Amino acid sequence: MIEIRGFEIDAAALLLLCLVLTLVLVALGLMLGRGGQAPGTNRGTRFFLVALRLAIGWHFLFEGLDKFHNPSWSSEAYVREAIGPAAPFFRELAGDSVLDRVEVVDKKLPLELDRDLQAYFDKFVVYYGLDSGQIKLAETKLEQQKAQLLTWLQTFTKPVQLPSDQAPPVVVSLTIPQRIQEYRKLTRELRDLEDEQRPRYGKIIFPKIKKARANVTKWRNELRSDLNEQLAQAKKTLQEVLHDDQKKMPPLVEPLIRPVQWWTPLEWSDIKVKYGLVAIGGLLLVGLFTRLACVGGALFLIAFFVAMPPLPTWPEASRVEGHYLYINKNIIEALALLALATTRSGRWCGIDGLMQFFPCCCWRRKSSSAMLEKSPEGQAAPHAHSSGLAGENARPGDGKETAPTLFKENPHGS
User: Fold this and answer.
1) What is the percentage of the chain residues whose pLDDT exceeds 90?
2) Which residues, at least 6 apart from 101, have a Cβ–Cβ distance to it below 8 Å?
3) What stretches of 212-258 adopt beta strand conformation (E)?
4) Dihedral through CA 256, CA 259, CA 260, CA 266, nearest 10?
5) Which of 50, 94, 245, 262 satisfies CB 3.0 to 4.6 Å to 79 for a cystine?
């Protein structure tokens, strides 16, 4: 099931509906949109161009629906590991969701962590239908858990293994603030390797960069794991206010979508990616606003390409499939979409082929370019030439014969 703005939609049923709708619209487009066929393109060419559009549309649509189907999906890991000239922009967009939730400032619970707990509490109250007495008791327990979390973030100690090239590994007991300090140190070392040493030493430094990335990821994941354990305990405590019949209900599905006013730039980016992929995929499948959808899809793919360009001066990203140099599958698919944007694929097979029959749409059925295309090879369409001459040479009231009259009297130019 996919939940979109509170509505649950069966993913398989939605895909089947899209497929059936696409086939119906394709059939209508083939029957009624024959006027959009361009000269010089035979049936085979048109068939494979349309097939390419449908394949890319299906890819976009399924990618978008899969992200809706997986509530825990986030582009944070992808954009945080961005490389190339645009890396600083993408890293700033990603932020650091772990630090935002474990770093105590002014002896207060981190803002993002407090918002997560409040969002869960609000959903918890609505989902289980708590009465006024249960709500008051739950609020008390929530405040207690917040106080305990604040204490844990300041005093909790855990044995951790420090990054070291020497054996045996060094294990020390550190508090959360000390682990954050070490995590920041590892991050600074990684940035120094990427931004300062990599341009000077080139590929020699690649192994160190990969190892530094692994250390940063390890420390981040450990902090996240420890925090999730505490959050799970806090949420379990709220379950104590439930009655027996409420405890029999299925557990609350997580992660939850927070209120819009609390969204971070990354959350806004993620929701745009989800809806953008579904919208572009759907438009390409049904052949509606096809050229606009092709350009939009190409921009999406170019953004993904810019985040992780396959440059020889950077080590290969761990999240990239295959091995590339300058060109990867994102740029190839973007070029295919831009090529499709120059064709009438939507009019050959899609709703765009039907739009020309609606008078409210500004379709120029008999434009000058279309008249030129229908004229014999090597001979310009008389009407197109006459329109151009009439617009350039004719002057109202000058008493001279206009271009259309000349063409009527001497159509062959002899």
Assistant:
1) 46
2) 110, 112, 113, 116, 227
3) none
4) -40
5) 94
In our burial notation (b when 16+ CB lie closer than 10 A, e otherwise), range 25-45 reads bbebbeeebeebbeeeeeeee
Amino acid, single-letter form, for residue 240: E
Cα–Cα distance between 365 and 347 in angstroms, integer?
A: 12
Q: With beta carbons less than 8 A apart as the criterion, state whether 98 and 149 touch.
A: no
Q: Where are the domains of the chain?
A: 2-75+269-355, 96-263, 368-409
The C-alpha atoms of residue 118 and residue 109 are separated, in whole angstroms, by: 12
Helices (H), 41-175: 43-69, 76-80, 87-94, 99-102, 111-128, 132-155
Residue 91 has pLDDT above 70, yes or no: yes
Contact by Cβ (8 Å): 154, 175: yes
Comparing 89-93, 279-283, 347-351, the range with the smallest average pLDDT is 347-351
Q: Which residue has the tokens 């990427």?
A: 194
pLDDT tens, residue by residue, 21-62 = 666 655 555 554 454 455 566 788 888 998 999 999 999 999
Q: At what angle do helices 290-307 and 43-69 cross, to 10 degrees?
A: 60
CB within 8 A of 320, min separation 6: which ones? 308, 310, 328
Measured between alpha carbons, how far apart are the two ends of the chain, in Å?
Answer: 72
- Inform me whether the pLDDT recorded for 385 exceeds 70: no
Both tokens assigned to 148: 């305990």
Q: State the Cα–Cα distance between residues 15 and 45, nearest whole angstrom.
A: 27
CA–CA gap between residue 129 and residue 141 (Å, rounded): 17
Assigned token pair, 16: 């089947």
pLDDT in tens, 189-245: 999 998 889 888 888 988 999 999 999 999 999 999 999 999 999 999 999 999 989
